[in-house]
Amino acid sequence: MIQHLLDGILVGAVLSLGAAGLTMVMHMLRFANFSHAELLSIGAYSALVFDALFKGISPVLAAQIGLLSMTGALALSMVFSMVITGISAVIFDKLIFRRVREKGEELSMVFASFGLALIIRNAIGLIFGLQTKLYSQDIVFATVLSRDPLVLVKPDQLATLGITLAIILLLHLILSRTIFGYALRAVAENPSLAQVNGINLQRMIVVVWVLGGGLAALAGVFYGLNNQITPVIGRDLVLPIFAATIVGGIGSIYGALLGGFVVGTAANLAVMVLPSGYSPSMPFLIIIAVLLIRPNGLFGEERT
Amino acid sequence: MIGLVSYLVFFAIVASILAIAVLGLNLQWGNTGLFNGGVVAFFGAGAYGTLILGGGPQDGQLGGFGLFYPLALLGGMATAGLLAWGVGILTLRLRHDYLAISTFGIAVAFENLMRNAQWLGGGAQGLRGFDRPLRAALGDGFLYNILFLLCVLVLLVLTYRFLETLVASPFGRQLRAIREDETAARSLGKTPARIRLTAFVTGSVIMGLAGGLYGTFYAFVSPQDILPTLTFQIWAMLIVGGAGNNKGAVLGAFLIWGAWTASGWALSRFAPIEAQLYTGSIQYILIGLVIVGMLLWRPQGLLPERLVVSQLGRTKT
Known about the structure:
- The structure holds two protein chains of two kinds.
- In chain A, 70% of the residues lie in helices and 2% in strands.
- Chain A is an all-alpha fold.
- Chain A has a two-stranded antiparallel ribbon with strand order 1-2.
- In chain A, helix 1 packs parallel to helix 5, helix 2 (36-57) crosses helix 9 and helix 3 (72-102) packs across helix 8 (201-226).
- Chain B is an all-alpha fold.
- Chain B has one domain (2-227).
- In chain B, 72% of the residues lie in helices and 0% in strands.
- Chain B has 13 helices and no strands.
- In chain B, helix 1 runs parallel beside helix 7, helix 2 (39-54) runs antiparallel to helix 3 (69-91) and helix 11 packs parallel to helix 13.
- Chain B is globular.
- Chain B starts with a helix and ends in a 20-residue tail after the last helix.
- Classes of the chains: A mainly alpha, B mainly alpha.
């Protein structure tokens, strides 16, 4: 029970990071972006490339940090990967979403995002191969937290959780304490009114994509670190991430963060009741439950 | 020669079945503006429903009802409709994102359920033990396929006629009205939520019909037949053909299914052995490019929607 809860919280951290970016994009551009989860793949794979690069350049970086399987090279790669993924998200917007948006078809964006997701996912499969990859071949032993009941935790998982919480705090401070944060929330509330007050909408859209991409890259690397890296990360995570945004209420960043943890723990606790084969259905059941009980999510407002 | 003809018949059967599903999607997306991200769930519900209701008994599995075939097919359609009603009633009142996400979710969950629930759909091995109607009289050969094709074509034409009539009717005008401006429609005393639900369920029932025919043709259905890929293919068909135009929907189905089969054949024939593993990836990239490319350069499709003026106003002088 405690083990499942703990695992759920760790999965939840990854989902939270993904959902926070997705909910911002969905709120500002008003479409369900089905290609968001592919940004996690891009993040995971670009970190893989940088990791190999840095290890080659400097053997010092190849040393592991403390008890983690994470190396200095991977930590550095993570930062680079966030930048690359953020830039890719902006490029996708420039190439596809902005042009579809300017044609005025809101719902066509959803189609476009599905098409883009198909292209990214399979292009990654073509470039890196369909087999699974790992950042590190070393086996990291789990630390026993308690023997009765048996609770195991890997140092990597704790680091993931710690960094996620730190990032969430940082995000909170930016959103609530800076002028930039106000501007971002203003645009999300009412784009026209925000523009009247001198906020550059195009620039805010770029910033949102960069932020969303960066958070997604982080989530992708963490997912790869705790599981494995495959081209289908996006396919497997798209529904849980959407479930997290719906639980939190579309547009609410705090909701998305909380939603990630709710979906992560609920899916892991459900394994105790249902056969584990059914776990891919869990996000859908959570979505249905939320729609039945609180259609606009925990923190969402009604908006059509 | 006979090989080619029998292949063409086979191709035409699958393409026509898919065309029926595209027509169902066209009612939802093209005419009403409802985004269905889980076409394959309703298609699958039709297929599984038909085979379970019309099939013979299987060990440890639901089924063995052995219903008269047309009843089984209607049952499959009803299964798809019920599923759509359930999703629709929860999501159609909310902003459109919810429908897109929930329908996508139900496709994932449906595939997952069928893969795991041995008692329901035979699990990963799929559903067997279905006897195709009139098989005893006609056998399994070329003759059967020709007659099956004729039946599918008749159903395709009937679906087409039904939808054309529906779209031209006052109800069709309501659909377009709420697609274009929901607030205006509401101000005229229409109830968008109910109208949308009707259109969503009707479209899904048509997808269920396509699924039922698909299951009947193969006398078999497995989770492998209801992967999300099929949803993408069906969309590509509609977007290429032209959303809002039923002729376009049918045209798109034949074009995309032709391109899909041809590209699969060409890749398996000419691509080097080591690239064979990636045939699927290349085909999916092509489908993705078709969807994105059409949206960017020809969003109205090959045959654009014809805007109808129902009541002619005064002509301008």
